[in-house]
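Hi support team,

I'm filing this because I wasn't sure whether my run with flavin-adenine dinucleotide finished correctly. The job status page said complete, but I'd like someone to confirm that the output block is well-formed before I use it downstream. Pasting the exact inputs I used:
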Amino acid sequence: MSRRAVFRPRNRWRKARQLLFILGDQLSREHPGLAALDRSRDVVFMCEVREEAEHVPSHVQRTTLFLSAMRHHAQWLTARNFRVRYITLDDPRNTQSLSQELARAIDCLAPDVVLCMQAGEHRIAEALKKTCSAAEVSLQTLEDTSFSCSLSEFDAWAEGRNELTMEYFYRERRRKLSLLIADDGKPAGGEWNYDSENRKTFKAAPACPRPYRARPDAMTREVMELVGSTWPDAYGRLEHFHWPVSREEALRALDDFVSKRLSEFGPFEDAMWSGEAFLYHSLLSSSLNLKLITPMECIEKARAAYEGGKVPLNSIEGFVRQIVGWREFMRGIYYREGPAYVSCNELAQAGQLPRWYWTSDTDMNCLAHCLGEVIEHGYSHHIPRLMVIGNFALIAGIEPGRIHGWFLAMYVDAIEWVTAPNVVGMSQHADGGVVGSKPYAASGKYIQRMSNYCGECAYDVRKRSGDQACPFNVFYWDFLIRHRGRLESNHRMRMILRNLDKMDEDTIRIISEQANALRRQFGID
Ligand code: FAD
Ligand code: SF4
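And here is everything the job wrote out:
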């Protein structure tokens, strides 16, 4: 007996004056295009296509999140009398290509104009332009108003600066938005940055409150089935899917974070613990990136808790810095640098990505845990991304495009505008210092300090060569040896590189040979 579909769009519209194309990460109820529509004559167009889950692989939770959130949004629009043309993944007429589906919609609805908010990926923006031009329909690109800093404000700030430093951008945004600024115009508490108070580690298994996890409703369960049957061999596990797929759920996740975990967010921001993927982090990135909630909503809720005395200054400051600082800075960089940015490879690294990045099947305990979290949840917090998974790729010599492709595939919050500057720039230093002034390269010592991973590892974190030496140590020193010439001109690297002067030739040779052997063993070379 066939079951009745939960989500059944009506696609019988024949004519539209304006066609508003809403992409899967543009699900804001305040989308500027919606206000421009005449609900009786214009049509909203949304489509699910295989191409978007296959041009790079996509974790099953990432695909499920996008499709389910799109369907919930289409349902919300329909309930408000918008005419929605929605092409589902299993629609027999679906060409499974974004451009071709847009072309088909134009052909069927003959609009005078196609409206679309700025795409979060240059590839898609280009495809839309080409399709509209071939169909001889004008394309109007709308500004994405969900950010607290417009791209023109970012460009005005960046113009004429030799270096773009996030900290200065952040201070200017704090002043502009009057965030944590005292009456005398100085930063609240006297400092702009409380990072030094935010590096606490756990001494024993932490007892963090469990985060809000949305329960999949019938529509999400239907999508989970569809994703499972369409991509039976896709990466990741689906049974732990609990991401917010609607604005209501995203607001619940925000309230839960602010009331239960924000107060400890600052101090333990950088800590890691096996089996604890979430700790005091907000888990709001996917809701923000799909535009279910806005950055300023998050900030206002957090500010109210701080002003009510429920959250200390170092925690609210840390949170504000991530949201109005790093997030908006990364977006500004992505659009300012243009399409060539994703192919940067300043350090000329050429290694393959080990196969175990997709399975977590490695005897390095830190990587096994961090990669395992990603497979299970499509998520890990910032420090596993930067200091374990990204750091390994950097120091082992993996080609930045390969690790960028992996991050794009495996995280529920991955969209190129935010993934590329974080991976190509911050984590791999492949942009030559646009995002960060020095590479985030670290040895096993950092991981030992910030986690409990090393105690149960097959390798010895105290050793930098020889039997059982921690691969992070071997690769860290090898990275400095290999890139010494390039990095010497960077004044922030001089102190670190001086350590190489103290090494004799034999030690350098042994480290290089061991790094080469490990690269062969891991399938990097
Ligand atoms: P929290 O730790 O609770 O932080 C609060 C919010 O701040 C996040 O939800 C996020 O919106 C924002 N934020 C914090 N740091 C950054 C940052 N560096 N860039 C942009 N936003 C930030 N973030 C993504 O949204 N998508 C990605 O694909 C992505 N890829 C990353 C890859 C690497 C190698 C690194 C180092 C970082 C990446 N980040 C990415 C940034 C950051 O790690 C995630 O935003 C964060 O871990 C999401 O978890 P959370 O919501 O619990 O964040
Ligand atoms: Fe990771 Fe090295 Fe520690 Fe093992 S010893 S968990 S490989 S840092």
